[in-house]
Amino acid sequence: MTKKESGFTSGNLSLEFHSFIQRQSGVLRQFHKNYECITPLEGKCVCTVNEHRYELSVGECIILFPFQVLELELEPNASVQRIIFNDHLVLTVTQSIEGMIPKNPVFRPNESVLDFGLKMIFDTFGEDSGPISRITPFENRMRIKGLLYMLAGDFLASTTLITAPKTDIAAMDIALYIAENFKNNISLKDIAKEKGYNYQYLSRTFNRYMNMNFKKMLNFYRIHQAFAMLQDTDLPISRIAFECGFKSIRSFNQVCHDVFNKKPTEIRSMRRI
To answer: In terms of DSSP H, where are the helices of the chain?
Structure first.
């Protein structure tokens, strides 16, 4: 396998929907604030979700909940469809399962639903829809909502939901805080004080759930926002760095290299047409 690196994760806080085909081999580590469905199109993949390992074959899907840390590993010549979506597209479902997590997030949806859904997404958006803040026109929005509800129905019928441990809830609470405040100068001590947590407890809980410390996760989230902006805007690189919360170009370049093994200019050259 290639060196572990992080791939693109839609970081736009207003993101409603993003569907794309992933073919990159190696191990991709990422997280975001939306739900996600992953299904292999060819070959197999391994999804490690908060240190729990799941192997998927064609015909199977996995559902990721917000702020779960994903490591996605594709075997050579494999490809997967990734569908990232905001909770309000399936609001009835997400409201009913709030505070719950699946014992096993892997399921095998109805074959005709999956085949029809993947074809419909490809016919509508192609291989990569790009991050979409609101699906239009209305008929496309209704088709996507219908597909997601059907997948959610198959998912709920095949899995057991359990109450999320308090430690998971605390860690996700901090992850949400990062997503909403990453542009600012924030620290775990300040968050613990604001939210009434014991700092040592929160630090241990966060490290165990995310498998990285707060500072690393904050930079991880910031650099993914920068990745999206480098590809989707014409803003100067220096402005992107500061808008994403980095205090200097030097620190921005260092984190970019550590996470993506690339310079910001190289990421910009990969931008979508």
So the answer is: 91-96, 111-125, 138-158, 166-181, 188-195, 199-210, 214-232, 237-243, 249-260, 264-269
pLDDT digits (tens, 9 = 90+) for 104-160: 999 999 999 999 999 999 999 999 998 898 999 999 999 999 999 999 999 999 999
- Please indicate, yes or no, whether the overall pTM of this predicted structure exceeds 0.90: no
Grouping H, G, I as helix, E, B as strand and the rest as coil, residue 61 is strand
CA distance 78 to 201: 41
Q: What's the rounded Cα separation, in Å, for the pair 74 and 69?
A: 16
Q: Is 77 exposed, middle or buried (0-12, 13-18, 19+ CB in 10 A)?
A: exposed
Q: In this predicted model, what pLDDT tens digit does every residue of 30-79 receive, in sequence order?
A: 778 899 999 999 999 999 998 899 999 999 999 999 988 888 999 999 99
Report the SS3 class of residue 183.
Answer: coil
Q: Which residue ranges form the domains of the chain, and what is each CATH number?
A: 17-163 (2.60.120.280), 166-269 (1.10.10.60)
Cα separation of 75 and 64, whole Å?
20
199-210 and 166-181 helices, crossing angle to 10°: 90
